[in-house]
Amino acid sequence: MDDVTLAHNLAENAGQILIKLRESSNYEGKELGKAGDTEANQYLMEELLRLRPNDGILSEETKDTPERLNKSRVWIIDPVDGTREYSEGRDDWAVHIALSVDGNPTIGAVALPDAGLTLTSADTFHTKKLASPPRLVVSRSRPAKEALHIAEKLGAELIPMGSAGAKAMALVRGNADIYVHSGGQYEWDNCAPAAVAMAAGFHCSRIDGTPLEYNQPNPYLPDLLFCHPDQKDTLLHIINNLNK
User: How buried is residue 37: exposed, middle or buried, by Cβ count under 10 Å (0-12/13-18/19+)?
Assistant: First the structure.
């Protein structure tokens, strides 16, 4: 099985495990979120250790070790991205499976289980037209100051949404145009979304324009900008001027 097929299958199967758990268990709220994180992570870790025993793994739900730093190939996974949304019965949560090769987001799969959809970096994508005014996905609870500033400058429509994966896939699916975040994330929050979005032709970087780098000693990766390539320079200029 090739890597992208594996990523797709893992993301899709974990999503089905999570849906069945939510529908059949007596868990609610935070207990449901915790149980979902645990069950999906156990499945993913077991499968990766079985099928790719020589690769490194970085998972939100497994204690990190320095061993991965000596690996060229590292799987970066988030068993439930948007645990709060999952536990509340919302649909804006995701499962992230990514393969970083030499620090690059090379392969990614993002499952949106409630939509019955799994998007991967090997899919065929069609060029998306820029909306006017642009649509900007933001956090439901704490939109980034950069996002609010961009919205003011461009007259953009703000679309509140939960999971980072759901936000990024809104761009890929043609439902949004810009995703900017500065409130703090980790590699597992954005590696798979970045791999898919880049394959779909979107610009993906830090908010200062520098590349997204993965499998770092500290997996904290606090900010990002996903957008159409034609918007990149304008958005980076707006963000840069905000901090002056």
Answer: buried
**Half-sphere exposure (CA, 13 Å, Cβ side) for 100?**
30
H helices of 91-163, where? 145-154
Per residue of the chain (244 residues), give pLDDT as tens.
999 999 999 999 999 999 999 998 788 889 999 999 999 999 999 999 999 999 999 999 999 999 999 999 999 999 999 999 999 999 999 999 999 999 999 999 999 999 999 999 999 887 777 778 899 999 887 788 888 889 899 999 999 999 999 999 999 999 999 999 998 899 999 999 999 999 999 999 999 999 999 999 999 999 999 999 999 999 999 998 876 6
Dihedral angle at the C-alpha atoms of 177, 226, 106, 49, nearest 10 degrees? Answer: -100
Indicate the pairing of strand 104-112 with strand 94-101.
antiparallel
Q: How far is CA 94 from CA 55, 145, 218, in A?
A: 23, 24, 23
- pTM value surpassing 0.90: yes
How far is the C-alpha of 226 from the C-alpha of 143, rounded, in Å?
A: 15
State how far the Cα of 201 lies from the Cα of 230, in Å rounded to an integer: 11
Joined tokens for residue 10: 């893992």
218, amino acid identity: N
CB atoms within 10 A of CB 70: 9
From residue 15, how far is each of 2, 5, 199, 230 by CA, in Å? 20, 15, 22, 34
List, in order, residues 6 or more apart from 112 with CB less than 8 Å away.
Answer: 15, 91, 94, 118, 119, 165, 166, 169
Rounded distance between C-alpha atoms, residue 178 and residue 131, angstroms: 10
